[in-house]
Amino acid sequence: MTADLVVVGSGFFGLTVAERAASELGLKVTVIDRRHHIGGNAYSETEEQTGIEVHRYGAHLFHTSNEKVWEYVNRFTTFTDYVHRVYGVHKGEVFPLPINLGTINQFFRANYTPAEARALIAEQAGELAGTDPQNLNDKGIQLIGRPLYEAFIKHYTGKQWQTDPKDLPAGIISRLPVRYTYDNRYFNDTYEGLPTQGYTAWIERMADHPNIDVRLSTDFFDESQPISKGNVVGSVPVVYTGPVDRYFDYAEGDLSWRTIDFEEEVLPTGDFQGTSVVNYNDADVPYTRIIEPRHFHPERNYQTEKTVIMREFSRFAEKGDEPYYPINTEADRAKLLAYRDLAKAEKDVLFGGRLGTYKYLDMHMAIGSALSMYENRIKPHFEGGQALVSGGVDE
Ligand code: FAD
Ligand code: UDP
Question: How much is the pTM?
Fold first, then answer.
């Protein structure tokens, strides 16, 4: 085994670490992934019947305000000028999301000015004025008042998490902006766009280095192959981006995750819904949203005979399912603290990424956090002999 560094998982976190270590330090890096492809959840491929690029593990929109990350990702791809907008269906009517002046005026059948709308929402959120809500239910009501919360958040969140919003962290809802203008951009970030030639072309360019050896369909916990936990830990430094509870054999209990079932359908029409994402905010529709991927790339000359759509159904992940969203209840947070202690004590193994830190990281956050791990731990270790100890699973 000749690698200087082993990276478990070829998602954005793992590939960023591998690329930096190979390009800047000249290290030999072996990257393994148990899937048959690289890229983790950002992987995309062409749907055969339509020729349309489909994000295999759910719609992925790139956005960031981090200059360092933006400069870094532009080394591997250019970005289109796609700007993400989402619409939501409530009681058979389509509203612009996230909540903005357009949503408020349509919902209340009004013509409020920004100041009038602010005053109305402040009055409707009055029951929680001056508090600092820690859970999603109270935070949601405080942000937009009870009527809008019940129309657009309560049931969608119920379908997405199947957990009482009072038991969910407030941070989940703080991801969404609330605006008192008609601006319905979904993200607030400085930079936004989709990789011009698709996610897979971008990801392949990151891994395309003579010092990077990628081994697919290889599970770190399969002791019959050479790059396994038993064969590697202790002899070669490891960056592990799989689930942290799995690494420690669930010693502190299972962390809870949501998974998504995607129901894909090819339809004999050039346009099913006129936009890329439509949320279904009511309880009587079982799916959370419908994605129509052709609208992610209006600049491409896709054929107009057919389209492909995906309905998303969210449920608790069982062992064997893809863990997509950390649920992060009180009980999960207690277990996570125990896993952090174990991670700190694990010599020469660093834990990173969405699964390794049990954090709801967007792509730019995973890349940013990998760049920090590289600068603060990996580079000082290889250049100056600094001990390779994890800061816990909170890089
Ligand atoms: P991952 O991409 O999950 O990669 C981890 C890799 O480790 C996987 O390939 C896995 O197969 C591998 N692995 C795990 N265990 C083992 C093992 N035992 N042996 C070998 N390999 C193993 N972010 C955005 O910025 N915008 C979005 O619009 C967006 N939408 C999303 C939608 C969904 C449905 C999901 C789930 C995520 C979304 N994200 C989005 C988040 C984005 O996917 C993550 O930020 C990114 O994938 C994080 O990269 P990562 O490397 O940490 O993890
Ligand atoms: N959310 C909601 N209604 C919506 C959109 C989002 O209640 O129409 C809530 C829901 O709890 C969701 C969270 O806001 O999990 C974050 O939304 P986002 O669109 O960022 O979720 P993701 O794309 O990561 O699934």
Answer: 0.94
